[in-house]
Design goal:
292 residues; alpha/beta; 8-stranded parallel sheet; two-stranded antiparallel sheet; globular
Length: 292
């Protein structure tokens, strides 16, 4: 999957490139509802993973009362439970049902921002749908203006990147007043710091509001690598960012990454949605201890 970004910047040229970028770009600070997203103590996101409308609403009501800052509806869990999904997504009713659920989620979330996410199996999610189906869902959600962020995957179902299509999709979401988190996941390995830096640079050129990079830590060095890359990007005005190392060896980065420039972290409410994700109460304690 990472072959697409094999044109990495050489170490001896990296500083000059990012010095130039840093002069052209200042770090954006996003304010969404009452939440300010910036480097420092990361805002905590709780994913909703219910697979029926009733379970989704029940989870959302619990999440609204938890010590979290943002609620993410992982709609792929719901889609995976829809009978004969391929046929269902040919009907207008299937899309309208999702908007109805999102309307409830948005209402219950209240002052907490809402992220709408459909994660494919190839990116660690629960459902396999085409890019065209995903695009239709994103477009309808953007038009509804019920989600503060729409999570868009960098890679399509063929593990390729259609830059022009992504740029258009992101621009369309912006036209409806939505914000975009452009996400990259690697559940096998941790890219080298220079690879992460080049990846994020390419991602930001596509126009998202936030870039998210989550990759598997197979060693303590892997966990340090994503923190190094995050610090370098932040120092050079590239952001906002969401970065983390997945798996048991990456758990510490879910807490510490804010110090290096990441603006969000994820913690489970009802169910873990990614390897190494701690429950919300444990995460709050860790953040309190670490950031004071």
């Amino acid at each position: 999957m990472f072959r697409y970004f094999s044109r990495c910047i050489k170490n001896d040229k990296m500083e000059a490139v990012f010095n130039r970028i840093g002069k052209e770009r200042t770090m954006k600070v996003l304010k969404v509802k009452d939440i300010v997203l910036k480097p420092g103590r990361p805002k905590v996101v709780v994913p909703i993973t219910g697979n029926t409308p009733e379970k989704i609403i029940e989870e959302c009501e619990r999440a609204a009362a938890l010590p979290c800052d943002i609620i993410e509806w992982r709609a792929d869990y719901y889609l995976a439970s829809v009978p004969d999904l391929e046929e269902a997504l040919k009907t207008k009713e299937a899309y309208l049902d999702m908007v109805k659920i999102l309307d409830d989620v948005n209402y219950i979330a209240g002052s907490k921002p809402v992220i709408f996410t459909v994660r494919r199996k190839g990116q660690g999610g629960q459902v396999e749908i085409s890019k065209e189906q995903n695009d239709s869902i994103w477009s309808l959600v953007a038009q509804s203006q019920l989600a503060d962020f729409i999570d868009v995957e960098l890679f399509d179902e063929n593990d390729t990147v259609d830059e022009y299509k992504l740029e258009d999709q992101i621009a369309q979401i912006h036209d409806y007043g939505g914000r975009v988190i452009l996400s990259y996941h690697d559940f096998d390995r941790m890219p080298k710091p220079e690879e992460i830096i080049n990846l994020v640079r390419v991602m930001y050129d596509l126009g998202p509001d936030i870039c998210k990079v989550a990759a598997m830590a197979n060693s303590e060095a892997d966990a340090r690598n994503i923190l190094k890359a995050t610090a370098y990007l932040t120092k050079n005005g590239i952001g906002p960012l969401i970065t983390m190392a997945m798996g048991p060896l990456g758990t510490s980065t879910r807490v510490a990454s804010g110090k290096y420039g990441s603006c969000m972290t994820f913690a489970s409410g009802a169910e873990e949605s990614a390897p190494g994700q701690a429950d919300i109460f444990k995460m709050k304690k860790w953040l309190d201890d670490y950031y004071g």
